[in-house]
Specification:
CATH topology of the largest domain: TIM Barrel
Strand content: 25-35%
Low-confidence stretches: none
Structural class: alpha/beta
Distance between the termini: 16 Å
CATH architecture of the largest domain: Alpha-Beta Barrel
Number of strands: 23
CATH class of the largest domain: Alpha Beta
Length: about 375
Amino acid sequence: MLTQIYNGHILTPSGWINEGSLLFDDSRIVEIRKNSHLEPRAELAVNAQGMHVVPGGIELHCHGGGGHDFMEGTMEAFNEAVMAHRRHGTTAIFPTLSSASLAMIEAAAQVCDELIEDPFSGVMGLHLEGPYFNPLKAGAQMPELIRLPDPEEYHHVVEDFNCVKRWDSAPELPGAVEMGPYLLKKDVLPAIAHTAAEFDEVKAAYDAGYSHATHFYNGMPGFHNVREFKHAGTVEAVYLMENMTVEMIADGIHVPPTLLKLVYHMKGVERTALITDALAVAASDSNKAFDPRVIIEDGVCKLADRSALAGSIATMDRLIKTAVQMAEIPLHDACRMVAETPARIMGIYDRKGSLQRGKDADILLLDDDLNLQAVYSMGRKV
């Protein structure tokens, strides 16, 4: 069915189009026009009434939502969590597992393998956040599941399941650097996370293919002293790796908006993605977390002893609002950081991440206050 969204403020890779039209047929965008003339062939015409028409959000790092965690490893949990976030503007997602047992990884990967075969599922691949982390920087990761990189284990997971697209590790661990080239060869993105690495260790990982930093500023040290001597931490090392990309939890709590603004200026739109790092309680009426150690307080998830943040309750629409209204980032750049940049990082920009002819019809409508008014995922209104 040919649908026309007209009278919209449309964001394209070339900039904004005022009072423009976007036409999509079933799941693909077929044309973007610089006018709002009604197309006679269109079976449905939607008046955007001057609202912002922007690309659907792509979630790189999300543990669950709608009361379900991807660690449950069931089709129901995946579908419910994905749909919960879709209603808030996430039209493509890389479900994330925290540090998990091999059995838990296998169960989730089996489900994910099925979902990636369905272009309408919204699931683009599996993100493994761990379990190869520095215990000193475990944060809310389950400490009993953290372990050293095991080639036999990660070879099995990557080679026996098609869905694994990203794997996070602490680069200072024995065997972590060697994991990088293997993952790259298998088209899996290596990322650094939950680490105490200093400059030389980050540089070695970067040279081995680790090109992305997980929830930047969280689970990693910045500038610090070792006795009387000053040391650059992981944060400064990531800044100095000029082409290393980063992701920021843009809930306004995990990192202050001032730091979000700093990263935006230092790394730029092309190397900064915004994520939720959401847990099961996001987009849910429930206040019960999947992990019994976690409480919800002050609009964020924490360990019950308040020793660490444990994830967010944010959704995609909140990321955009935080970036624009709290960090004073222009709307067009905030939208790029939730769509274009994630798509480029994960190698799916050929079909997602921007409003262009031939790309998937993943579209959001935002009013002037950045409230989400409509979501189209692969051309289907949510």
